[in-house]
Fold:
Amino acid sequence: MPLTSLPDAEAQCAALAELIRPQLHPDSMLVGIHSGGVWVARRLAQLLGLPEQIGLIDVSFYRDDFGEKGLHPQVKPTSIPFDVEGRPLILVDDVLYTGRTTRAAINELFDYGRPASIRLAVLADRGERELPIYAEFCTWQVELGKKEELVLEPNTTGRLQWRQAEHA
Amino acid sequence: MHNPQLNDHGELTHLLSTDGLPREILTQILDIASSFLEVSDRDVKKVPLLRGKSVFNLFFENSTRTRTTFEIAAKRLSADVINLDVGRSSTAKGETLLDTIDNLVAMHADMFVVRHGSSGAPYLIVDHLHRIGRTDVHVVNAGDGRHAHPTQGLLDMYTIRHYKKDFANLTVAIVGDILHSRVARSDIHALTTLGVGEVRAVGPQTLLPTALEKMGVRVCHDLQDGLKGCDVVIMLRLQNERMNGTLLPSAREYFSCYGLTPKTLALAKPDAIVMHPGPMNRGVEIDSEVADGPQAVILPQVTFGIAVRMAVMSILAGN
Structure:
């Protein structure tokens, strides 16, 4: 069932920042997962007054479906511009679903060092987890059909907004 | 025409030559390589893409740099790499190339990286794998005879794009023994597919193949003419064995006519880059002052070569 109305993603970013704020450590750093998670992480960095330099992660090299699907044609470089060792990290994504992307991102982060902790922050959690993964910070629980997809994207003025799509 | 490098979906499944590769695939390889570049800067220089896969390095011809960079690339993708000293083992005992391949397939090889003195040897392997129904095994040509050396061609394209951003308005001069150079052939095919403004082949008549113009190349027998206004200068190695024949009078005379010196390089654009596939012969095709100078990007080529080979192997393994 398509959703009748989609929430304001910018307002969700602000709400997510307020959920994170009380638990923020002075050394905390944000890591956004390409591409939706990076946009959300950039918003959170502004809202929380964190340094502009956030970590960017593309999990294409760590995916568990490489054997079936091959390499994603649009891989972006991962860039972690700070020392991960001993640091509390907040991993940011737009949508949490099966948990496989999160698993891949955690594995990739550990190749940079041993963080003090990794917490997960997402705008939307659509359930249907296939791995024991949990978002500590989340603004929206949503139920969708298997073929339905939630896409976060900036509009022409740069405002983040949700779009609902259907895949084959 | 059937392109043995592509599968039924038009995806790259073997890399045999830059000739016949569509522009989108060339660009895709370069884009993915730029993501792999960062992996080599990490503490843990590894990603798990090819974990559990076996890559066999089959070098029927000697090579240190190419074999090593393929080995590093495969290891950074977490593959198991097996280096076969084929020149000294089974082939020397009389085993045919395809029997060697059958034996390695029986050992569950997933990918072959092949260098062979005979042009077309990797094509023969691909054809054979197809015939025995093993389309899950991939082949990378690491240099076949005088024909092709596609990963060198691709890393050269990566290097040019890294320093010059856009191919469209560039003038690229390839200087030296183009007749015997598989690197030159792979470069020319890739450069023309990527839409470079002008490609020049510079060298003495005896070291240039005939009908080069048909590949869309401007031929120059004079180094000064060839370098004038260039953005990129690709120097080729003058192989010592060519000296003994009748193609050239002497290494000294070659250097005085075609060696790249600070004085001749000054004819190119001031921001021109100088490339060389290595190994270099200092004082034969290139002066040390140029090879070690600020315009040389010969060592970055080696670093980029690892990322390009990682990109190629991971694309093939996924298709």
User: Anything to note?
Assistant: The interface with chain A takes residues 11, 28, 31-32, 34-39, 42-44, 46-49, 314-315, 317-319 of chain B (CB under 8 Å). The beta strands of chain B are 54-59, 80-84, 111-116, 138-144, 171-175, 198-202, 217-220, 232-235, 273-275. The two ends of chain B are 20 Å apart (CA to CA).
